[in-house]
Amino acid sequence: MVKDGSLINVPEHLRAEVVSPILNYGDLETLQQVVRAVRAAGARVDSTTAIHIHVGAAPFDGRSLSRLAKLVYKQEPLIFVALGLQQNRVNRYAKPMSPDFIAKLEQYRPCTKDQLNRIWYGQRNTCPQHYDSTRYYGVNFHNVWYRGTVEFRWFEGTLHAGKIKAYVQFVLALAAKGLNGRAASSRKREFRPESAKYDFRVFLLHLRLIGDEFKTARKHLLGAMPGDAAFKRGRPQPKPETTEAAGAPVAEG
């Protein structure tokens, strides 16, 4: 538990947040135990609380961070609905990826983090400050140079251990796709309610969130999506039986 000065709507002695040490994938069960313990101790969440997940930026270079940015930009319409982001959070603390930033990635194609630094800040920033204005994006690249991580700020506060595990697995899958993918399209996806659940399920499978290990992750990440996970245009309705097929006599003309 560490002090959190950004909390102003609670007494000073309650202004704190839970911060984990650096975790590996094998530590997910321990993380879930911590979440359950915090809940058992009486913790509560409300509309002002959030979860931020950091992924170490050391393996990334300018190319892989650009792939991650374009991947996120394309799928944001689905991601925001799947995660149930409040509009206030989207407007202030977890803003969508900037179209101008994406356009500059396509134009300059940065190979190194230093080249990406110039694009992210609009100039070379060798001494980034904690409260830089560029930190308030859903995917925060400011932390690449300030803390050495890529920060994902999308997640509403929850004390559901299974949901938090799903969020971590989702973020790790996105990061792995950015690191290991060959290319990424930045063409923005159109959100279609009738096919949203199917589209997002296909995206999760594209991220390799396949099999029993990620079954609960798929469940939580698809839970808020409209549509049908198995049918792009909705589940087909059974055809009504004809009078003749039902065995009723057919009147002679």
- By secondary-structure content and strand pairing, the structural class works out as mainly alpha
Number of strands: 5
Low-confidence spans: none
Helix coverage percent: 40-55%
Mind explaining what this structure looks like?
- By secondary structure, the chain is mainly α.
- It has a domain at 51-222.
- The chain is built from 9 helices and 5 strands.
- The protein has helices spanning 28-40, 62-82, 87-92, 99-108, 113-121, 142-146, 161-180, 196-206, 215-222, and strands at residues 2-3, 16-17, 50-56, 139-140, 149-156.
- The strands form 2 sheets. It has a 3-stranded antiparallel sheet with strand order 3-5-4. The protein has a two-stranded antiparallel sheet with strand order 1-2.
- The longest helix has 21 residues, at 62-82.
- The relative contact order is 0.15.
Layout of helices and strands, plus pairs?
Elements lengths: L1 E2 L12 E2 L10 H13 L9 E7 L5 H21 L4 H6 L6 H10 L4 H9 L17 E2 L1 H5 L2 E8 L4 H20 L15 H11 L8 H8 L31
Antiparallel strand pairs: 1-2, 3-5, 4-5
Helix pairs in contact: 1-7, 2-5, 2-7, 2-8, 7-9
Entry summary:
It is built from nine helices and five strands.
Keywords:
single chain, 253 residues, mainly alpha, three-stranded antiparallel β-sheet, two-stranded antiparallel ribbon, 9 helices, 5 strands, globular
